[in-house]
Amino acid sequence: MRLRLAALAALVVVCAVAFPAHAADPLTLDDAFQRVANTHPNLRLFGARRDVLAAELDRVSLRPALVAGTSIENAFGTGAASGLDGAEITLSLASVLERGGKLDARRTLAQSRIDALAVERETQRLDLLAEVARRYLAVVAAQQQTAITQFDIEQRERTVAEARKRLQAGASPESVVLTAQAALARAELDHARAQQRETAARQHLAALWGERAPSFEVAGGDPLVLPEVADFAVLADWLARTPELAQFVGAARIREARLQLARSEATPDLDWQVGVRRLQGSDDFGLIGSVSIPLGSTSRAQPAIRAARAELAGLEIEREAKGLSLYSTLAEAHGRYRVAEVEVERLQNDVLPRLTKAEAATRAAYRAGAASYLEWATLQAERTAARKQQLEAALDAQRALIEIQRLTGQAFVAGTGSNTEQGVSP
Fold first, then answer.
1. Scanning 263, 307, 328, 419, which has the fewest C-beta atoms within 10 Å of its C-beta?
2. pTM of the entire predicted model
3. What separation in angstroms does the CA of 224 have from each of 5, 231, 305?
4. According to the UniProt entry, where is the signal peptide (predicted)?
5. What's the rounded Cα separation, in Å, for the pair 84 and 87?
6. Which residues touch 276 (CB under 8 Å, ≥6 apart)?
7. CB-based contact 26:20 (threshold 8 Å)
8. Which of 157, 173, 135 minimizes the C-alpha distance to 8?
9. CB 348 within 8 A of CB 147
10. What is the pLDDT of residues 288-343, one digit of tens each?
């Protein structure tokens, strides 16, 4: 199950391109995905873990070893057994004959662990890609916040200029100019803070692939552009195929293999031995052989069988609990997205246009002496606050969308008529 990187890039509306051809080229979200996929130790660690499990599979596939031995009897005693004159030497070959399918059970258990590792790696990959998207979105958010504060600075500068004209004309006191200058200084402070947040967010993003002194610029984009997501019923259906739940399928195979291995222990193994003995007295040779079997294997295997059955039964309960948790998280994320989507749209179509017209009318009235500085400054603050509110709503929607895609393991834009996947395997 692949997370489509191109669609995740749509979260922040950037162009999906390959690695930057030059150092000065902006970093896209796909670039960040690829860097993390190629370098992050959490993903590279799975290669070493697979090698360990592959070696374990080879080890458990070995049959019991053949044991070669020798024994000497009637040597270094007294009388006729003194020295080596009466010694009898036996050469033997021994091993264990496994019964009950123990070899196949061990192989199945080892192989199921290897198979489960692939699903675990995919889950880790989705979590990492979602974290990359969040951090990239934080950089874009800081850029947008910087733009809003720059807009606020520009409108506050116009207010200071108009207040000075009114002061020079004797139409307003100096306190109005000082108040406008204080508002401008506050806007400049917000601008500096937004720039610092962008620097910190860029460093936080680069830390995912180990870059200590990032010099790149992100491609940016408009987070206010929100894609249309699928209905919740469709999302809930996709949730059933998420890697987080698919892990339980692998875990079930492992526990079933453990149960089968425990059952195989109820069948006792045969210890056998064959050899040849030299009879010192007649200088003849004779064959020897023995077979032994432990008693009570069935009763001794029962505790392990009961434990394996209990673990297997408990796994289904764990899966049910995990499914409920994921469903609740998905419902919450989908609800957040829908609420934020409505908020962004209403602010864009209803609130901001009216505030823009009201601010322009109040500015003209202030120049004509028909409105006070407080009325104009209040509308400017309302306009800036509405833009910030819209940006925060859009960012909340983008974060919710990232969470939806992480949970479902799908990337989508509903209504495109296509749901093909573009997976990138690190």
1. 328
2. 0.78
3. 20, 20, 58
4. 1-23
5. 5
6. 90, 91, 92, 285, 286, 287, 288
7. yes
8. 135
9. no
10. 888 888 888 888 889 989 998 998 889 889 989 989 999 999 999 999 999 999 99
